[in-house]
Amino acid sequence: MDYENMKQKLRARLKPGRYRHSLGVAETALFLARRFHVDEHKAYLAGLLHDCARQYPNEQLPAEAVRRGIVIQPVEKSMPLLLHAYVGAKLIAEEYGVPDKDIAQAVYRHTVGGANMTDLDKIVYFADMIEPGRSYPEVDRLRSMSREAALDDMVLAGLDQSILFVVAKGHLLHPDTVAARNDILFGKLATNGLD
Predict the structure, then answer these.
(1) 121 alpha carbon, distance to own chain's centre
(2) Separation of alpha carbons 61 and 52, rounded Å
(3) Are 59 and 77 in contact (CB under 8 A)?
(4) Is the CB of residue 125 less than 8 Å from the CB of residue 113?
């Protein structure tokens, strides 16, 4: 399936705002892939398809996850919306003909991150935070970082922003977000000879 057919399918299944967001993430991921010398095709596709499972209402996501053999952890039980990333990672092969494991992993990790994120994972995670349709107090600073900061520095800033947002809302903090942040920090410490 080519890009245009995927876009048509997404447009038919997603709400208009979610579809525009998906296009914005795809273009932003492409920009970041060029900047950081990551496979542009994979970045664009992962960005385009990252929210494909948002076609399901939140209350239906647990059943879709179970149907695909996805284990639902306590945090996802309390916030079923998080399951859209995991369901989407399966859906890209099922409905969009994209069996690529790198793209699936980037889709899987785009919401909460995880330990040992690849550059593609980081790009899609960050593109989702800064695409042109996003509007929140720190987005301009993060967009500025996307043009000048190192990849790990900007993703670390994005993780920090996400953690602050989740804590301010009084929600559970996902262990994978903490693992992603700690992993990048450990990497920076090792690079600086402080481990």
Answers:
(1) 7
(2) 12
(3) no
(4) yes
Cβ neighbours of 15 (radius 10 Å): 10
Would you call 191 helix, strand, or coil by DSSP? helix
3-state DSSP of 41-76 = HHHHHHHHHCCHHHHCCHHHHHHHHHHCCCCCCHHH
Domain extent at residue 34:
3-191
193 falls in which pLDDT band (50, 70, 90)? Answer: low
Q: What is the pLDDT of residues 29-57, one digit of tens each?
A: 999 999 999 999 999 999 999 999 999 99
Helix and strand totals (H; E) in the chain:
11, 0
Q: What's the CATH code of the domain at 147?
A: 1.10.3210.10
H helix or E strand, kind and range, residue 89: helix 83-96
Number of domains in the chain: 1
- Kindly state the tokens that stand for 39: 């496979």
DSSP sequence for 38-50: --HHHHHHHHHHT
What's this model's pTM, rounded to 2 decimal places?
0.95
Query: Can you tell me whether residue 193 is helix, strand or coil?
Result: coil
**138: number of Cβ within 10 Å:** 15
Closest by alpha carbon to 80, among 104, 92, 63?
A: 63
Among candidates 59, 39, 55, which has minimal Cα distance to 47? Answer: 39
Report the alpha-carbon distance of residue 132 to residue 166 in Å, rounded.
Answer: 22
| Number of C-beta neighbours around residue 84 at 10 A | 24
